[in-house]
Amino acid sequence: MAKSTVDVTRADAVLIGGGVASATLAALLSELEPGWELEVLEKLDAVGQESSDGWNNAGTGHSALCELNYTPQDVDGSVSPAKAISINEQFQVSRQFWAHLVESGRIGDTSFIHPVPHMSFVHGLESTDYLRRRHDALVANPLFDRMRFTTSHEQLAEWAPLVSEGRPVTESIAATWSPDGTDVNFGQLTRNLFAFAETVGTTVRTGREVISLRRMGGEWGVMSRSSATGAVHVTRTPFVFVGAGGNALPLLQDSGIDEIRGFGGFPISGEWLRCTNEEIIARHDAKVYGRASVGAPPMSVPHLDTRFVDGRRSLMFGPYAGWSPKFLKTGRYTDLFASIKPGNIAQMVAVAPPNLDLMTYLAKELAATSGKRFAALTEYMPGAREEDWEPVTAGQRVQVIAPDPKKVGVLQFGTQLITAADGSIGGMLGASPGASTATTIMLDMMAAVFSDRIDAWRPRIARMIPSYGTSLSDDADAAHSSLERTASILGLSH
């Protein structure tokens, strides 16, 4: 009886996962090393379908213009702008790279990005005072200096009529508004980036689930299985990037690298309300972010959100937090339990007590009726009618549980880059603002894992991304020039 054989090929790099992180890395490497043969393995039948999908991803183009969780308030009432400035700087890097790809003809259109004003909205005297302090802390920075602040109901009605209508004029409110905000369809951007990479030397294989990562001498063996035929394939490569969203954690664990030891993940799911009334959709042109409830994860910060998906304008509110043990929307119910290993079980157990407020919040969200969820919408849109909205399942997020010598386990709301000491493998864990800042994250990873090449790449990177290695916040002329130039190329000018 003939023995079955396993097909073995070779690539210069293998990228696991067909989302925006892998797509960004493929595009960068295609520009810097056009002679390399890259292979992308995606278990679904198309790329950009999980966290990068237009309905699953927040789509905001996270630049900290409106996201209040990036500007924490200290006990003395002061507001720190540092994290917001850092995130905005990283988003400008993404904008510059996208503008380069469009200007050079690598990407044929700009329909993946739209200009949408970013707003923050709060009510109550305490929150109004916070938003004023936040505005004052940010507006001195050239990346935020077009942001406007108001406590006027009349001005709110001009910026966001749906938020203003039906609201008592005696209510204490405050809002900020920035014309520099965007809506980004990261699913479409992902497809555009891969389409360019494929013209240079990248092979994208969909319907290929990675089932094993093993050392093979000085290389990695990436074993994948075809969902169509069941055939098993092994790709040998000197470098692997794991950009598989929530599934990155178990894949990195399977690799056995020391750097992933102690890390765990906590999955959070959710839902949106999507407007079905075209007249209402047409009357709102903003992303309006509020303050999170006590214990709420950053991904659950409520927002009334103008979005463009599949060429159509839409209006969404949410997300409402939920919970599922799956690590992907299309994952398995055993994902969370399978990720618990001897090296991270202590962190997984220890992270619960300090996050009881999060557990309580999630329990309340899961128990909330549709009526209670709709009531949350009316806080931002007093005139909303329940018949104009439908529920839509949001994407799955896996928040990082990071090892810490003092706290044993720390639940992080953000993005974590993991790289092996020998530079042979890297991966990205976590959620927002990962998609918006993916270019910076990939550049940081490339500097770590391709230390022998990064110096030769720097001049080319600087031509694609003029602010590379500098801070726009330190140079007002450079910041304004970058905003204006990228807005012009990407079709964002109002």
TrEMBL record:
Belongs to the MQO family. This is Probable malate:quinone oxidoreductase. Keywords: FAD, Flavoprotein, Oxidoreductase, Tricarboxylic acid cycle. The keyword Oxidoreductase applies. It comes from the Bacteria. Its EC number is 1.1.5.4. GO terms for molecular function: L-malate dehydrogenase (quinone) activity. It comes from Brachybacterium huguangmaarense. Gene3D superfamilies: D-Amino Acid Oxidase, subunit A, domain 2, FAD/NAD(P)-binding domain. It catalyses: (S)-malate + a quinone = a quinol + oxaloacetate. Pathway: Carbohydrate metabolism; tricarboxylic acid cycle; oxaloacetate from (S)-malate (quinone route): step 1/1. PANTHER family: L-2-HYDROXYGLUTARATE DEHYDROGENASE, MITOCHONDRIAL (PTHR43104). The lineage of its organism: Bacteria, Bacillati, Actinomycetota, Actinomycetes, Micrococcales. Its cofactor is FAD. It is an enzyme of class 1 (oxidoreductase). HAMAP family: MQO.
